[in-house]
Design goal:
Elements lengths: L17 H5 L1 H6 L6 H11 L6 H9 L6 H5 L6 H11 L3 H12 L4 H10 L4 H5 L12 E4 L8 E5 L1 H7 L1 H13 L3 E2 L10 H5 L3 H17 L4 E4 L2 H8 L9 H9 E3 L8 E4 L8 E3 L7 H12 L18 H5 L1 H15 L6 E4 L2 H10 L5 E4 L9
This protein binds iron/sulfur cluster (2 copies).
The site of one iron/sulfur cluster has 15 residues, from helix 2, helix 3, helix 5 and helix 6.
Length: 378
Amino acid sequence: MNKKSFVHDATQCTLCGRCLEVCPLFKLTQHEELSPRGKAFLLQKISMLNISAVEASTLAGLCLGCAKCATVCPQQINLPLKISRLKAAHPRWQDWIWSRMLLRSTLFLPLLRFSKDLLPGLHPILEAIGPVPGNISAPLKLKTSATEQNREAVVFPGCFGRFLRPDLEHKARAVLSSLGFNLLPTPEWQCCGFALLQAGFLDREASCRLTNFNIWEGLGRPRIYTFCATCMQGLEGKLSPDVQTGSQKMFVRSIRSLSELIPRLSLESAAGSSETQLIWHTPCHGSEKTGSALKKLLNMHHMDVSLSSTQCCGLGGAFRLQNKKMSLDLAYQRWHNLHPSDDAHCLTECSGCILQLGSTRPIGVQVSHWLDLFEQAL
Ligand code: SF4
Ligand code: SF4
């Protein structure tokens, strides 16, 4: 085990407690040892011990990888990355996560995607994922407003858009076309890398990032639009250990969330709109602005969506594999605070949240992406 790779310099931590205020696990359990601060000190201790794979994986699993602590830490301590390094440094971790994934996971799509290449014959697992949330009766139609003539753009659909909801990619393309972007064909992107990093597959994350960068360069450096908040975080590589060069920074600047275009959309009501209660879930990696922009847009069409404060859905990639009960507790707590009516429709902008909330939703409640509000064709 490479001890140097995850030694936490405790002198950096001022014990300010800001990370405690934002950590979803600490909020749920109130256990200091599960807080970012507690885990950072535990990591420091573990680096001096010769611990087992089970102990390491147990510790490493006690984190959702939401990066909220890294975002607020005034000392810029990147705890999720320290945990990823711990996972990567442990020789038995990858065997452990593969075995859990193959036996139990229907939610860890990026790894499933890799598993298709690495372990032939796994396609049935993808087919066994079951019903995919989404596809409501769309109450709105996109109209052409064409304000972005001649600007080239390409869609990054992520594993969710590629494998489970390809119709979302079509809808994303329709949004961009309606605004006049010059749309390029969607290339064979690699994984955004977020879940790989969070699971400790640092080499694969770096390789995906390099391939995606080369694809972007080969396309002539267009804007990249993604409709998944977690893909956005993964592509930006903020939590990645590598230092970015000048052109890699340009790549990051070219990555945009499709949600930022919501205020510019031109719409008309489609036939058969329903009176269903719409509620909005802001993902950990999403922007509070998306819900507000959507509300404004819907209000213009005599519809509404209820907003609530950001709260983790509890998926956290490998976290659900390791800590199913805690993951589900977080999801049910989230549902409690969303206050859905019996036939409510929950919208969000993250594929992981759609899967987690979709698999825990109250009977009668639907979960989907905001793009599902639109009919597909222009
Ligand atoms: S990444 Fe999220 S879950 Fe993990 S310690 Fe930080 S705030 Fe808590
Ligand atoms: S936010 Fe950073 S400095 Fe403050 S307690 Fe957490 S780890 Fe320490």
